[in-house]
Design a protein that fits this description.
This protein is of the alpha/beta class. It has six helices and five strands. Helix 4 links the parallel strand 4 and strand 5.
Length: 158
C-alpha cells in the first residue's frame, strides 16, 4: 500500500507489471487511477482493507479486472485471518452475478489450511498465501497442500 499511487503506475507498467492494484483508501480519485492502469495496458485491480465496506467500490466495479479483499490489516505477515471479511467476498460475488461483471475476487491475509475452504466458498478465486507457504516446513509441499485444499473446496462450492 503506497500513497499517491497514480505517480507510480507508469513506472510499474514500464517495469513489466501487467497487473496493478491500488488501495481504495489510498486513492484520491479511484476512477482515474484505475483508468490510468488500463491506459498502460495492465489489468486494473482495487484493494479494500478489512474495515472498508464493499459499497465504496460500487462505482468502479464495472472498470476493474479484480478486487482484492484484505483479510488482515496491511503491514506485516503472519496475522490472524479476520472472519468478517468473508461477507465482503460473498457480496462481491453476488454483485458480479447480478450485474454481469467479470472481475475476479482475490483474498490476501491469513489464507491457510484452516481458512482456505471458507474463502473459496465465499467466492475468492485468487489466493495470496505467505506464512502458510513459507512459515514452516517445505514451501513446495506447503503450496501443493494449500492448492489441493483450495481445489477441493472449489469443487464443493455451491
Amino acid at each position: 500500500m503506497i500513497e499517491n499511487p497514480d505517480q507510480y503506475i507508469p513506472d510499474f507498467a514500464e517495469s513489466g507489471a501487467d497487473w496493478i492494484s491500488v488501495h481504495q483508501e489510498a486513492c484520491r480519485h479511484l476512477n482515474r487511477a484505475l483508468h490510468l492502469i488500463k491506459q498502460h495496458g495492465c489489468r486494473a485491480g482495487v484493494v479494500i482493507n478489512p474495515a472498508t465496506p464493499v459499497g465504496t467500490l460500487c462505482e468502479v466495479l464495472d472498470i476493474v479486472d479484480y478486487v482484492l479483499v484484505m483479510s488482515v490489516n496491511p503491514g506485516f505477515g503472519a496475522q490472524k485471518f479476520i472472519p468478517s471479511t468473508l461477507h465482503k467476498m460473498r457480496k462481491l460475488a453476488e454483485i458480479r452475478a447480478e450485474r454481469g461483471y467479470s472481475y475476479r475476487i482475490e483474498v490476501d491475509g491469513g489464507v491457510a489450511l484452516e481458512t482456505v475452504a471458507e474463502v473459496v466458498h465465499a467466492g475468492a478465486e485468487i489466493l495470496v498465501a505467505g506464512n502458510a507457504v513459507f512459515g514452516k516446513g517445505d514451501p513446495k509441499v506447503n503450496a501443493e497442500t494449500l492448492l489441493e485444499a483450495a481445489r477441493s473446496a472449489s469443487l464443493q462450492r455451491v
